[in-house]
Amino acid sequence: MFAMADVMTKEQRSKNMKNIKSSDTKIEQILRKALWANGYRYRKNVVSLPGKPDIVLPRYKIAIFCDGEFFHGKDWIVLKPKLMNSNNSEFWIDKISKNRLRDDRVNKELMYLGYTVIRFWGNDIKKNTDTCLEVIEETILDLKMNEE
Fold this sequence. Notes:
Elements: H1 10-18, H2 26-37, E1 43-44, E2 55-57, E3 62-67, H3 76-84, H4 89-112, E4 116-121, H5 122-127, H6 129-147
Parallel strand pairs: 3-4
Antiparallel strand pairs: 1-2, 2-3
């Protein structure tokens, strides 16, 4: 197999990567807007919690993460072999593998603190915002029923 050449120059790729935001992303904005419109109040990027969740519903102790497919390794079994044939494959495989391990560790730490963790993929938020909202509402209902 051969590695495909990058279609961008090193400077263009660097500029592109620097512009990738870690908070207040479009997918976070979409989900927050839907939550607010349905009367849910939240905190964003809570630094005091493990993993700094994108959205926290403090009333229900729910931590929500809006994960990008590439950086969090969606369909890792399919993505990893593709990365093996790309430029800088060792870097990306290592980075995404560590991200996945960190995500798992953060989930466990939050659950230990009594939080319910919900993770959504970016494209699911963009294309199926209502379904994401339903998942959150069902989780809230389950939590309320378990209190009684």
